Sequence to fold (221 residues):
Amino acid sequence: MRVLAIDSSFEACSTAILDEGGVRWRELRIIGRGHAEALPIMVAEGLDRSGLKIADIDRVGVVIGPGAFAGVRVGLAFARALCLGTKAVAIGVTSLEALAASVDEAGAVATVFDARRGQVYAALYDADRGQLVAPFVGLPAEAARRVGAGAARLAGSGASLVAPHLDRRLPISAVRDIDPAAVARLAMQAENPAAPPAPLYLRPPDAIPSARTGFGDAAVP
Fold:
């Protein structure tokens, strides 16, 4: 199986190509903005360097959020477009589980992203990266209460926001960004989905998507 992974959910724009032999391509750029322009170029370069065509890809792993509203939509739209007319199947992966899978250190990990507006996105995963606390959005103090007790360490751009609210000191992983190879591994291991992946926002977006985009009917938890 050949898996192409893409992530444009935060400041990083990243791609990876994985098969049973391991990682064939990986690239991560911290760009802040311009994901829609950068992503096609990165994917084309990855396919070229790997000696592959899009028709050779079996699955496209894509980060569905939570994350930046525009970035999540860019990644999902691009993943769906790549799957049109090919055998490839789009597989959605949350940003928080992808970050947990990017952390090599042993033990349970609380993954935390800075969600702006004084909030964080957070979740808790055990040592085998099974989900203990589902992704949620809240104040740093709430995140500390909900995930801090069960974590061995913190990871992500919001870790330093949560750390001061913990009852005990936890180490903070150096991993702040999602490894696209981790997205590819999760997509390779996933079951075939019953429907195309939809965005996971966790809070209402600043702009309301049009129903014509294909995302307008997506539920906002």
